[in-house]
Amino acid sequence: MAKHSGGCLCGAVRYKATGEVTRFYHCHCSRCRKATGTGHASNLFLAGSLVWESGEDQIVSYKPPDAERFTNTFCRNCGGRVPRFIEKLGMVFIPAGSLDDEPGTAPQARIFTASRVAWSCGTAALPEFSEYPM
Q1: Can you tell me the distance from the alpha carbon of 128 to that of 114, in angstroms, rounded to the nearest whole number?
Q2: pLDDT of the chain along its 134 residues, tens only?
């Protein structure tokens, strides 16, 4: 059983998730783009459990009225996305950027690519910089 820990940007919310990663996707749907402000969201699905170490009272969730599966869960202080437990699936949904360390697995697929915007990260190589370019 793998253990994953993480938290929000300001550190108010901290969590530990235990279980096995079943899926790791880059999601290009419009909801993920709007929730993250980026071209895609990187999300892990873990068959296991989620325990809040701190800040559970700082967590806010928003579910669009017409959404079947999408819920944006975040810290009310900093807006940093945090995990949520999906009870009917027995899964922990983890925004990969909230993890403290590497998840131990690589993304398996890009999903909702029909919604992908042209400027989103694709498979083409771009120049890389370790810091801001000069």
Answers
A1: 27
A2: 889 999 999 999 999 999 999 999 999 999 999 999 999 999 999 999 999 999 999 999 999 999 888 999 999 999 999 999 999 899 999 999 999 999 999 999 999 989 888 888 766 666 777 776 76
Distance CA(2)–CA(18), nearest Å, equals 6
Please list, residue by residue across 95-112, b when 16 or more beta carbons sit within 10 angstroms of its beta carbon and e when fewer do: bbebbeeebeeeeeebbb
CA 127/CA 116 separation, integer angstroms? 21
Helix (H) or strand (E) holding 31: helix 30-36
CA angle centred on 105, ends 100 and 106, rounded to 5°: 105
Q: What sign has the CA pseudo-torsion 55, 24, 105, 116?
A: negative
CA pair distance 70, 106, nearest whole angstrom:
22
Q: Which residue has the tokens 């959404």?
A: 67
